[in-house]
Amino acid sequence: xxxxxxxxxxxxxxxxxxxxxxxxxxxxxxxxxxxxxxxxxxxxxxxxxxxxxxxxxxxxxxxxxxxxxxxxxxxxxxxxxxxxxxxxxxxxxxxxxxxxxxxxxxxxxxxxxxxxxxxxxxxxxxxxxxxxxxxxxxxxxxxxxxxxxxxxxxxxxxxxxxxxxxxxxxxxxxxxxxxxxxxxxxxxxxxxxxxxxxxxxxxxxxxxxxxxxxxxxxxxxxxxxxxxxxxxxxxxxxxxxxxxxxxxxxxxx
Length: 253
Prior knowledge:
Blueprint (H helix, E strand, L loop, with lengths): L7 H10 L12 H17 L2 H35 L4 E4 L5 E7 L4 H16 L3 E7 L5 H16 L4 H10 L6 H10 L4 H8 L2 H16 L7 E4 L2 E4 L3 H14 L5
Parallel strand pairs: 2-3
Antiparallel strand pairs: 1-3, 2-4, 4-5
């Protein structure tokens, strides 16, 4: 019988994908190839847990590679991510951990995530929060983001009130709704309209989109917490764990 142990890797790959064996294994004759296939098939049928173990290891390697990619991107863009003057800074401006959220005013998950963010600011006095408009869902989202940037330009101290009222309100967010919220907060509407069309408003949104693209963000809410990129609403407990990991290297400090 042909000994297959030295050729296990190539044969296993053949069995899994059905593709021709690598060049180093193409010298097998038809009888040898058939024997290898039979051996591998028999082994996998007898030990199906091997496939599960292989998939777990594949997932582990993919996760590690993605984490390394995120860390590199965060390192390259750190100043813009954490300290850009175009971001809205809340919480402790000198905090030991910076929590950056990319959001869309028409994102249902962002509405729930807002409550998580507010609770975190109340319970964690060392947390710095940065908000970045990331309007990916509709033209209305873009319009609402433009108004939000104009609010930040005119009255940054009113941004959080604006953010809560618009994101927490009912119905789709668009220019009309965003302007109505701004008017209720007593902003200068003529200046707001001017600022919405300014190069600064355009540059702010473009900056946020470029950051999101560089870090592979494809949805909202998305976060940067320490060296971690988090895509999706993971809940307050999940966010606390990420913050603790950034702060002290473990889930609970």
